[in-house]
Each structure stands twice: as structure tokens, then as C-alpha cells.
Amino acid sequence: MSETNFDVAAFTYAHRGLWGGDIPENSLRAFEAAAREGVGCELDVRVTADGKLVVFHDATLQRMCGRPERVDALSFHDLRKVRLPDGSVPPTLEEALEAMAGLPVLVEMKIDRIPDSQDRNRTGIPALIGAMRFSSAPAAVMSFDEPTIWRLENQIVDRPIGMLIDADEPNDEGAAIMKAIRADQTQCTFLGPHLSILPHVAEQFPHLPRVTWTVRDLPQLSTARAHGAAPIFEGFSAALAKSFANTI
Prior knowledge:
The protein is α/β, with parallel strands linked by helices. The chain has a domain at about 20-120: Alpha-Beta Barrel (TIM Barrel), CATH 3.20.20. Helix content is about 30%, strand content about 20%. It is built from 10 helices and 9 strands. Strands 1, 2, 3, 4, 5, 6, 7, 8 and 9 form a 9-stranded mixed beta sheet that branches. Strand 5 (about 140-145), helix 6 and strand 6 (about 160-165) form a beta-alpha-beta unit. Helix 1 packs parallel to helix 4. The longest helix has 11 residues, at about 175-185. It is globular and about 45 Å long.
């Protein structure tokens, strides 16, 4: 598979790679394991203090590496001295895509508030745009952050670009669907709703491909497939995640 523009809904994705046991999430070993099993993956990218992209989920290193620093407060050089639980380093996006060996990847751009500020750190967007322009890997980009998606839509061509949509916040009923409406109006090519709102999104936006998260058991997998969404799964085998598509 070599085309960069692909149908995101046609695949199955391991959440942060195929991790578990001694294989950490978002590690090269997790991506290599997903590739061996023939499934795509979802991964998270963050920006370092000097504008480089690394694959890491949390804003800080505490949970995965036992250190309190924020990822965006460290230089790329310093971050490469940090170790995941298996002794490996947090990979770059390029390394992760290479490990996936041509299987599809959903790249989530993490955007957080700057400490002691109402602004968000979007300094990684140019690096992501550059990475996507120069890569031939089948990778889609997505984010919860609407300004990020709007900018990516204007700068990245011939790749799927999707809006991630969480469930409604308390006292904010309808916010999720309104976000989906805005995404549709700005010509996002796919939606990534939380599993809890997938039925509503599928009903109102049948023309847009869908991925959904995070699928952790067979009933949830059934829900995803029944509403035409590719599952972002964890906690069970890739073979089961793939084969279950044929049982719905």
C-alpha cells in the first residue's frame, strides 16, 4: 500500500500501537507488532521545545518515564536521553511510520494549553505539515483542536484530515454535533467521534468516513462496525479485531 490518500474507514487501528506486557504504548516495538499483525495504528505526536515532533501521548513524562518534565519543555536532544519502560526512546514520527511498513496510520496532533496561559501550543504544526508533505506513508492526520485542523486543511493535500470529537461535556448538550457540523463545513474528510456519540454522528453525517475510539471489548467492536466506523482498539488481539468485521 503506497497511496497517501486512502479510505480511513476501511481499516482497523491499534490504539497507540499494539502494546501490552513488556511492550510500551507509542513505542517502536508497539508499531512493529501492529505491522506484523497486519493492522494499522493510531499514534500521538507532540512538539519539543525546539519544534521537533515525537510520538508520545501525555503532556508530561511522569506516567511513562517517571519524570515530571513536560515534553514541550525539553529539546529534542534532551528528550532522546529519556527512556520508555522497555529502555527504548520515544520515537520520532518518521521512525514510527517506517516501523509500520506501509500500513495505514492515524496521526493525532496533541495540542495543549501553555502553562499559565490561555493560549495553546501549536508550534508543532509546521513540522507536521512538512512531515506529511515529504512522506509517502499512508498516514491521515487528526486532532481535537479545531484551529489546528483548519490550518492543516489549507496546507496538506492528498491526505485524509479528520476532526476528533469527544462526548458532550456536562451542561453543554449538543456541542459534539455542532463540532461535527463545523468540521463538515470546513471540508474535513473524516470524523473521529467517541464511541458514545458514534450512532448520532453516523446518522447525521453518513457521507463522511468515520473512525471511533477507544474500542476495548467485543460489544464495542460490534457497535463500531454496525455504524460503519473503523475501530481504534486496544486490549484484545489484532486478529480478532480484524476478523470480527466479517461477522457483523
